[in-house]
Amino acid sequence: MSEKQDETSASGPASKSASPGNEAPAPASQTIDAKAGAKATDQGNQPSPKSDNASDKGEATDKSAPASSSSSSAEATATDQKPAGSISSSASSASTSSGASSSAAKEPSTPPQAREAAKEPETQSRAADKPAVKAAITYRSHIQNIGWESSWKKDSETSGTSGKSLRMEALCINFTDKSLSPSIEYRSHVQNIGWEQSWKAGGSVTGTTGKGLRMEALQIRLKNDLANRYDVYYRVHVQNIGWMNWAKNGSPAGSEGKSLRIEAIQIKLIEKGAAAPSGIGLAFTRSTGDGSVNYRSHVQNVGWQGYVSDGRTAGTVGRGLRLEALNINVSNVDGLSIAYNAHVQNVGWQGWKKNGEQAGTVGQSLRVEALEIKLEGANASSYDVYYRVHAQNFGWMGWAKNGEPAGTSGCSLRLEALEVKLVKAGSAAPGSTATPYLSNDTISTGITCQSLVEGSSSWLSCGLGQTAGTTGQSKALLALKLSTSGSIAGGISYSTHLSNVGWTSAVSNGAVSGKSSKSHPVEAIKISLTGDLAKCYDVYYRAHVANTGWLGWAKNGAPAGSTGLSRTMEAYQVKLVVKGSAAPGKTLGALLQTQSLRGITSLIASAGSGLSTINTTYNLNSPAGASLQRAISLIRSTGKNVGFVMIDLTTGEGVSYNANTGFYSASSIKGPYVAAVNKYRAGSVGASVRNTMYQTITVSSNEGYASLRTQFGSGPMANLQNYVGGCSFNPNDRYCYMTPKDLAKLWSGCYWYFFKDTNGNSSWCRSLYTNPSMSFIHGSLGNRHTTYTKPGWISSGSYYLARNDAGIVMAGNRPYVLAVMSTAYGQDAALSNLVQAIDAVHSDMV
Predict the structure, then answer these.
(1) The pairing of beta strand 368-376 with beta strand 406-409
(2) What does residue 677 show for φ and ψ, rounded to 5 degrees?
């Protein structure tokens, strides 16, 4: 039975036993484009906004001190006296006034709880008479304007205050089991005194009361058997810094020489071998005597980190997390303030913030891309502020200074970390100052392009982004030379592919590449940067090729132009972008060359949904392109739909329309299936099978096709799909819905089987397709080109209505695949007009 007789009798889905329309269409697939965003949370505490004032230097009221405690009328001096030694136990502290000594003598050695512990029966304090007990630590603070806290804190609870700008003045630590009191000792660094010379035992007071002196740092350590069983961790909340990291087993926590008060403390006992509490930043910081700069960052998925100081790292490195906001302040220098400006994604430069204000954003998932930091105030001229950033794709960039930008802009690259240092004016930079900032808006490096073209003895010269050579004059490029200028170290390397020669060796920095001969014109180029330039920029370039026009952009040493096609270059353009930035334009199709099968099918897969080109910048508004658009409109004006893919099998250049739209295959699927059986089951194709194949292809016998599917199954189609990189339909379906992309990919595989990846059946098999019944491709082009095609049609019923044709057009030495699928049954004249328009576009392209 012929296809025409069978398919015209079908009436739609109900006629499942009679025609190709019996098969259910393959389900459509969906692509979901999900965009995930992370929302950072604030995990740190805000630093205290106020600095110590006069009341923090002598006027304090001890409101709830232990009953035996006496207050002193002595006032501390307004300035810190530097301790003479280090923080070790052997260090001597600065001497104090006689008033301070007298007052200290009147202070109780223990608060009430410690005195009560001393009254307990001796038998209760004999640790040796009892098994080892689980230690539980307890502590409380003496706070400015409050006095002793009314309740004792335990196990990492906060003692003190935060957000109230109140200093901690004294601290008492003990255990709930008083027998363990001798197993802990501690000492503090106090305003105007420095480090206490002696360590205080459990239950004793460290620091001062009634003197208005701030605690600035402290150390805590365990002794005896407890030191073998536990680690003691502690951290402090410090003015202008917030919560610092955890210190451990006698290490200092807080600050020294910065005039910063401790405002709160947390203490925790952890059994040996157990995990340490988590924290970020430094546990302790000491002033260099040149002032201090303190800063913290808000990081994607992390939130606010703790403050760090004086050149230490804020943010993250190696985790790919964006820096979203920051605070910066200075301390320990009168008459000095700090201002900073952030360049933020989708915002640009925000404007200057000062002295701890937030720059950047929180909760908006926006990256900071660059920073400027400067000093202000009466003493600003006495200092320099240096800063550097860790940027996406670059790592640590050079140090910027005093308001210079650091980072990138116009590049969509995130900052990940920063470091800031305050130094005396004129001091050496902390490290290299090379390339602290890059911007696509102001490329600081220049490239000069010089070109020698056919018919001229003079070199043409131009700069970045300009056209080197000629266009529209049919003049071949014969040679070129490139050079760079600017402050960034490095150069430029380049090579040319010459007709009848091939690739030449790379040259650099102004040397000539090419033979300057009409016999060996330039066909392709490769360009790359060297030295620091290569670390800072990507170099993009594209070629203008004879009979083709501008191709896509190549990058960093990739070839651009054509090879093996006898097409000369006529011009080129070169551009620089900051490393990792977007390309200046389309990158597909930078090089025209003889394509592999997977190269062809990958290009087919890239075809768009509307009318679009494939692997070429061909102008669809050209005369041939305009004729194609009219041919499409003629079919669409009748209410019918059409889609097609045409691709040149040498270069991969092509054109498509509705390439992703599903159409019913009808018998067009028989062509690739028969070729697949010959390719993958050649040994089973005897005389009887060949006769069935002949009937299936030339007159579209449905009975013949059904016989072949019964004998060979779905395996050959599945193999062919894998050969071409996959298709969207189920190979088990004898008839199905498929896209023009699918059909074009299958016929590309058929071409490779017929002419390249052949076996003993290839030549006979392809002969079946030279003049099949009802082929409008052969009817339109057969008088000019050899064609290998297989059409398909179904004439009634809206669900399965189809008029398709697909195959190979041998257009001289430039064969191409053409797959046309439509619902335009009965409109062969319009479809023939479409095929002729597509052939004209192909001829125009190549």
Answers:
(1) antiparallel
(2) -60, -40
What is d(CA 357, CA 626) in angstroms, rounded to the nearest whole number?
60
Q: Is 636 helix (H, G, I), strand (E, B) or coil?
A: helix
Residue 95, pLDDT > 70, answer no
Residue 826's CB: how many other CB atoms inside 10 A? 13
**698-to-629, 668, 720, 758 alpha-carbon distances in Å:** 32, 12, 21, 22
Strand partners for 207: 170
Q: Quick one: tokens of 277?
A: 């509490």
**Cα 664 from Cα 572, distance rounded (Å):** 45
Q: Which tokens in the block code for residue 526?
A: 């490769």
Q: What is the pLDDT of residue 799?
A: 67
**pLDDT value of position 651:** 86
Angstrom CA distances, 357 to 248, 375, 651, 728, stand at 32, 14, 59, 56
pLDDT band at 564; cut points 50, 70, 90: confident
Bridge partners of 841, per DSSP, are none
Q: Count CB neighbours of 120 within 10 A.
A: 11
Burial class (CB in 10 A: 0-12, 13-18, 19+), 558: middle
- Residue 796 pLDDT class (50, 70, 90 cuts): confident
Give the residue carrying structure tokens 């006698």: 250
Confidence of residue 289 (pLDDT cuts 50, 70, 90): low
Compute the distance between CA of residue 454 and CA of residue 765 in angstroms, rounded to an integer: 48
Helices 687-698 & 670-680 angle (0-180, nearest 10): 160
Per-residue model confidence (pLDDT) at position 615: 85
**pTM recorded for the entire structure:** 0.53
Note whether 603 and 654 are within 8 A (CB).
yes
From 440, 451, 465, select the one nearest 574 (Cα to Cα).
465
Residue 828, number of CB atoms within 10 A of its CB: 17
CA dihedral 46, 52, 55, 58 (to 10 degrees): 130
Query: Residue 797 pLDDT more than 80?
Result: no
Q: What share of the chain is helix, strand, coil (3-state, %, to 5)?
A: 20, 30, 50
Residue type, 647: I
